[in-house]
């Protein structure tokens, strides 16, 4: 029987104990505090997956997630919201290019800038960082940089690793910054691929921000960063989880490093050792003992 027919014949709506159990599983695997108001969103996403697995009830799907670790990865991909774009929130990028990069280079003339795009989704944020830093590398030698992108959702990490974009994401980059798009992307069939010099400096890994970055086995990457982009992700968590994430991030920031948040996010309620620098930017002012 088709899943939609089966669900229509029984109780097709996700509700009651099954809904509560699913929300608890979302929290267990991602830390995300999803409310019952997200029921229809969750239901639509689960049905697609259940159809692919030929499962006809939410209870069967819950069992599948509980009994098969591989399904947990799919489940996490289903419940995360990965909306992103190149150069999202223009004022962030103006400050990064015009103030942060030149000031950092003056203060660290021979070092490699280490950047972390935490919750990088499909990589547009990390490549935006790389395009601006690369312009600096070409114009101000010996400046160099590396960008580390992480996300809990495995499918977006794969896209980011490929550095291959099409559709709305690429259209908006080509419209808003045509010179930059032409310099750093080349056509590959219907899509556009990031230039090799960017891809060589950008690395992506799957990582859950609820855990310390030190729990991730990194062969050759920095564990401490000069600037961390943590944008448009804290909004999905409750207060205690936000505090946990910010503490984990702080532990991976060098003294004096900057943290960049999304427009609807703030650190006001937290004990962090970070000082407001200017809207959306916070500076780590304490030593590591305090974070
Ligand atoms: C709305 S996107 C933001 C992407 C990008 N930072 C931006 O501002 O455009 C939020 C991302 O956070 C990721 N995410 C959610 N929970 C996470 C967790 N516990 N650990 C790591 N990433 C998480 C999601 O998979 C998603 O890709």
TrEMBL record:
EC number: 2.1.1.80
Source species, domain of life: Bacteria
UniProt keywords, alphabetically: Methyltransferase, S-adenosyl-L-methionine, Transferase
Molecular function in Gene Ontology: protein-glutamate O-methyltransferase activity
A Pfam family reported for this protein in Swiss-Prot or TrEMBL: CheR_N
Catalytic activity reported: L-glutamyl-[protein] + S-adenosyl-L-methionine = [protein]-L-glutamate 5-O-methyl ester + S-adenosyl-L-homocysteine
Gene Ontology BP, a term: methylation
Domain CheR-type methyltransferase: 7-277
PANTHER family in the record: CHEMOTAXIS PROTEIN METHYLTRANSFERASE
Protein name: protein-glutamate O-methyltransferase
Origin species: Pararobbsia alpina
């Amino acid at each position: 029987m088709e899943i939609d027919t089966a669900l229509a014949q029984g109780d097709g709506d996700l509700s009651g104990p099954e809904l509560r159990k699913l929300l608890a599983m979302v929290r267990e695997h991602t830390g995300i505090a999803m409310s019952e108001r997200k029921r229809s969103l969750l239901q639509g996403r689960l049905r697609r997956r259940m159809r692919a697995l030929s499962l006809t009830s939410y209870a069967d799907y819950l069992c599948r997630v509980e009994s098969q670790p591989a399904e947990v990865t799919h489940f996490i991909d289903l419940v995360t919201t990965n909306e992103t774009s190149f150069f999202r929130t223009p004022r962030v990028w103006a400050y990064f290019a015009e103030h942060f990069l030149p000031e950092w280079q003056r203060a660290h003339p021979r070092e490699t800038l280490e950047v972390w795009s935490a919750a990088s989704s499909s990589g547009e944020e990390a490549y935006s960082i790389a395009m601006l830093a690369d312009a600096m590398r070409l114009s101000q030698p010996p400046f160099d940089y590396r960008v580390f992108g992480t996300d809990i959702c495995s499918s977006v990490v794969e896209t980011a690793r490929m550095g291959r974009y099409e559709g709305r994401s690429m259209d908006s980059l080509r419209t808003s910054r045509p010179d930059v798009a032409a310099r750093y992307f080349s056509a590959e069939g219907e899509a556009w691929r990031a230039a090799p010099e960017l891809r060589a400096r950008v690395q992506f890994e799957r990582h859950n921000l609820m855990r310390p970055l030190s729990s991730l086995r990194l062969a050759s990457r920095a564990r401490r960063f000069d600037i961390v982009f943590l944008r448009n992700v804290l909004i999905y968590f409750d207060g205690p989880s936000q505090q946990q994430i910010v503490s984990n991030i702080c532990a991976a920031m060098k003294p004096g490093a900057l943290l960049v948040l999304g427009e609807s996010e703030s650190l006001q309620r937290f004990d962090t050792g970070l000082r407001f620098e200017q809207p959306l930017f916070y500076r780590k002012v304490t030593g590591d003992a305090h974070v």
